Amino acid sequence: MINLSVDIKGKEISYPIYINNMDIENLKSSILNEIDNKNYIVVFSQKVYKLYGKALDFPKEKTFILKDGEQEKNYKNYIKILNFALSKKLKREDAIIAIGGGVVGDITGFVASTYMRGINFIQVPTTLLAATDSSVGGKVAINSDFGKNLIGAFYQPKAVFINVNFLKTLDEKQLKSGLGEIIKYGFIEKSCRPEFDAHLINFLSEHYQKILSKDTLTLKELIKICIELKVAVVEKDEKENSLRKILNYGHTYGHVVENLTKYKKYTHGQCVIEGIKFALKLALSKNTIDKEYKFLCEDLIKKFEYPPIKNFDKNKIINVMTTDKKATDQYITFILPTGYASVNEFKFTKEEILKFLET
């Protein structure tokens, strides 16, 4: 087992992250020990419940099953889960457990952050995307008609349990969704200011075949590297006031693709990859990188064989970008590459982005 922890600077916030490949049947007892066997409810992804519900063996009366899909991360389901928790008479010292991908983690975490102004929250990510990114760091949210994650909070979990065995049943589409965020970490590694050199770009280039074949030990090491990089950022900047903004690399345009395709056609990770490709072109046009580095990044992306995504109307792109939560009245914010595994924040006017889109 790999044990990591998050310790938020200047706050009494600390929690463990357990990374292992133990039998899934043993996970329930580990979680209940973590919450001191207090009262709880479990919010399951529907697909995960079908695959692992019997093995995990949580009581049905404590189980809420959420349908799969980004569209389920909405206000109606938020209220349903809240009411389910209330019906079970949960107290502040009790817990809400999320078992599933990023959708389940995000909406359940938002419920936990608002239930009696905050209840213990346990993250059990079952996808590569959730395991390497969304389960750690405390960003919880639901979507609205105006965009993704516009209603949310920063709320740290009590603990995160990452079991690599869940990834064995991931299909190729979901595996590559997680890899989108992982590749992002390779491109921002130095800017995370870690206390170590993970050389993630090299790791991905050397082991991409093992990663695509879901080799357990390789995935375990990959998750460890990504979590360590994210922890390095979150511990210094919990609420995205400065350093944490770099985690949005690829997301400004990525969220455009998600929004314009109604969160149904492409996975989040694929949209992040498209956002990274957009950012590389924009960075080259602004001379923050050279052609050689752009080629290196694109060559790594090609190894993971992401299908192409069509272009969108430039006015629709701008409209979505200006409603992004990172935008201001005057500027659209991008995280752009500035060198090998390094990025920084840049602000552009609508006119500048329109002009770029026309080239």
Which stretches are poorly predicted, pLDDT < 50 over at least 5 residues? none
Share of helix, binned? 40-55%
Shape: globular
Number of helices: 13
- Oligomer state equals single chain
Mean pLDDT, to the nearest integer, reads 95
Give the strand content: 15-25%
Compressed to H and E, one letter per element, the order equals EEHEHEHEHEHEEEHHHHHHHEEH
How many DSSP E strands? 11
Instruction: Briefly note the structural class of the backbone.
Output: alpha/beta
Please give the order of strands in the largest beta sheet.
Answer: 1-2-9-6-5-3-4
Main β-sheet description: 7 strands, mixed
Distance between the termini: 51 Å
- Over the alpha carbons, how many angstroms does the gyration radius reach? 20 Å
What would you say this structure looks like, in words?
The chain is an alpha/beta fold. It is 45% helix and 19% strand. It is built from 13 helices and 11 strands. It has helices at residues 27-34, 46-56, 75-87, 102-114, 128-134, 172-188, 200-212, 216-234, 251-260, 268-285, 291-303, 314-323, 350-357; strands at residues 2-7, 14-20, 40-45, 63-66, 95-100, 120-125, 139-144, 147-154, 159-163, 332-339, 342-348. The strands form 3 sheets. It has a 7-stranded mixed beta sheet with strand order 1-2-9-6-5-3-4, sandwiched between helices. Strand 3 (40-45), helix 2 (46-56) and strand 4 form a beta-alpha-beta unit. Helix 6 (172-188) runs parallel beside helix 10 (268-285). The longest helix has 19 residues, at 216-234. It is globular, with a radius of gyration of 20 Å. The mean pLDDT is 95.
